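hey m, so remember when u said the C-alpha cells were messed up on ur end? i reran from scratch. heres the input so u can diff it against urs
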Amino acid sequence: MEFDPETDEYADSEADGRRSERTSRRADGREDAAADVTPATAEPNTASTTATPTAENEATATEIAAGATETDTAVTFDRDGLRAGFLKTIPVALGVGGYGIAFGILADQAGLSVAEAALMSATVVAGASQIVAVELWADPLPIAAVLVTTFAINLRYSLMGAALQPWFKRLSATKVYGSLFVMADENWALTMRSLKSNTGYGAFLLGSGIAVWLAWVGATIVGTVAGGVVGDPTTYGFDFILTAVFLALTAELWEGQSSLLPWTVSLATALITAELVPGRWYILLGGLAAATVEVIRRGE
C-alpha cells in the first residue's frame, strides 16, 4: 500500500497498474475498431466523388465530342469508290460530252488539228480555260494573254482542292495528285456530296474524273472532226449545255436556307466584278466571297 498525498488515501499501486493497463487496451481496441469502420463509411463518399464529373473531366468530354463532329469516317481508296464515282458521274459526263463537242468545233475553227485538240483536252482537262484559249488563238499566238487569262479562270481549283483536304489528307500523295489531275467542276461537286454523306470513298474523285475525262476527250475528237459540217455550235444550242449541267449540279448541292447567304454573296460579287474588272476574275472572286462568308459565319 502507498499513501497518495493528493487524495490523502492509501492506494494499491499494483491494482492501479492493472487497471491502467486494462484501460489502455480498451482505448487501443476502440481506435482499431474506428480504423476498421472508417474505410467502410468513407467508401460511399469516395465512389460518389469519383462519379461526379470534375471540370477537367467535363473539358475532356467536350474535346472528345468536338473531335467526333469532325471528319472521322475512315477514308478508303479502293475499287468500290472508283466504281461508285464512275457510275454516278455517267449522266453528268454525257452533258460534259456535249460541251466537248462545242469545244471541238471551236478548236477546228481556230485551226487546230484533231490530234492537237485531243491532246489539249487530254492534258488540260479544263473546259472554260480551253475555250478561252482557242478564242484568243491567233497568229502570232498571244502566249502572255492566254496564260494570264487561263490562270485567272483556273485559280478556283485551289479553293476546290482545299475543300477536299479534310478527307484527302489521309491519302498518299500519289493517290491525291492522281485524282486531282482529272478533277473538274462537275465531278468535284459530286465528290463533295459523296464525302459529306460519310461514304468514305476516297477514290470517288478519280472514278468520276475518269468518266468526265473519257467523255471530254472523246467529244472533243467528234467536235473537231464534225467542225466543218456543223459550223456555228450556237445554232444547235451546244453553248447552253454547260449551263444546263451546272444548274443540275446546283440543285444537287443545295442544302436549304443555309446555302442562301453564301450563294447570294457569291452571285452579287461575281456580277459586280464582271462589270468592273476585265477578264474572268469574277469566277475566283465570287468563290472567295462565298468562302469568306462561310468562315465568318462558322467562326461565330
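this time it looks ok to me. Strands lie at 2-4, 9-11. if urs says something different then somethings off w ur setup not the seq
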